[in-house]
Amino acid sequence: MVKVLILGGGFGGVRAALDLDKKIGSEAKITLIDKNSYHLFVPALYEAASAYGVKKDPFSVRLKKTICVPYSDIFENKNINFMQAEVSAIDPENKKIVTEGGGILDYDYLVIALGNRVADFGVPGVKEYAFQFKDLEDALLLNRKIDELTKEVAASIRARPIKIAVVGAGFTGIEVAAEFARYIKKLSKARGINGRCERIMILQSETKILPAISNSERISILKRLTMLGIEVVTGAPVEEVGNGYIKLNNGKRLDIDVVIWTAGVCLIDMLIRTSAFPLTENKKIKVNNNLEIAALSGVFAIGDNIEFIDTKTDKPVPALAYIAVDQGKIAAKNILRSINNKKLVEYKPFYDVWIAPVGGKYAIAHIWGFKISGFLGWVIREIVDFRYMLSILSFKKAISIMRKEITLFTQND
Description:
Elements: E1 2-7, H1 11-24, E2 28-34, E3 38-40, H2 45-49, H3 61-67, E4 68-70, H4 71-74, E5 80-84, E6 87-91, E7 96-99, E8 104-106, E9 109-112, E10 117-118, H5 126-129, E11 131-132, H6 136-154, E12 162-167, H7 171-190, E13 198-203, H8 215-227, E14 230-233, E15 238-242, E16 245-248, E17 253-255, E18 258-261, E19 265-266, H9 269-273, E20 299-301, E21 309-310, E22 315-316, H10 321-339, E23 353-357, E24 363-367, E25 370-374, H11 375-392, H12 395-409
Parallel strand pairs: 1-2, 1-9, 2-5, 9-20, 11-18, 12-13, 12-18, 13-14
Antiparallel strand pairs: 3-4, 6-7, 7-8, 10-19, 15-16, 16-17, 21-22, 23-24, 24-25
Helix pairs in contact: 1-10, 3-12, 11-12
């Protein structure tokens, strides 16, 4: 029986597993390995970090049920084995992987979809003093920190404003800053704090935010951020993060209470250490047009683990959830074709769609060249999220999750 191992249960890994199960089912042993027992819906992570009312639920059970989808639900009645473990080593030469517990699994085909880690770009103090925005625990910790600071302001223990710096003006940084503006406003009102309680700024090392989008779309996002009272500072690379401050490369020092680091991600150390994997200059795994690692037949890599250059633009394909899903589909299709001794298909990237939530029931959606903003943009985002849930869950479970999400995450609005 053919053995297929999928490392990582993100968007690409889950899609590859489901597609393989649909096509080959019991004819292969499909195993997905992930360190968590759940699939994290990363696009809603900023909502979890700014969810109002979490304090009433000390274990954040409601919140976890909203953005953490158990693999047992996704793979219910599927011919997919799930193993909760952390991968410590990959041995492509002998077609084996090793887990932290010392377990050894062999494979015929391997899909590497292990996600990434936060990149600090060598900036001192990031690991020690900045809130990294990567998983659910990061989001919950940040939520509690802001909650505590507003309590101190309400009790006159802390002088206002609470100073928050979001480093990185990609989609994540913008979503986080905008939603925190709404979150703190809600907390302030509930605690009887009159006037503005916070000062939120976004620091971007480049000269403009979201350089890949059009100028008109960028202006719309900047106007919305300004309306929410958020300062955007471009051309401001961070040189150091300390306890209560940020130092910019121009020598300017800013007193900051909370630093949220969303400046970028990089390959996890274990993959970098695997000498059989060729890496690009940006320390990502190099793959061919079939998403297969060169000289390693049957080993595919997808999502944040790779750098795939779009020949139309000569630039790397952006790290977006639906792109990882598309790559997962191609990896599954090529494994099936390889099993049947057929020519592999090429991955042809498409990424002319994006949606940027910018606080509350407001989003800017770019759909095949058309811009849709405001409440309708938010509705489109919810439809896209629901469509994804339907692709991995039963209708009943998808409806249940979306109902919980809308109920919980719109309390800031």
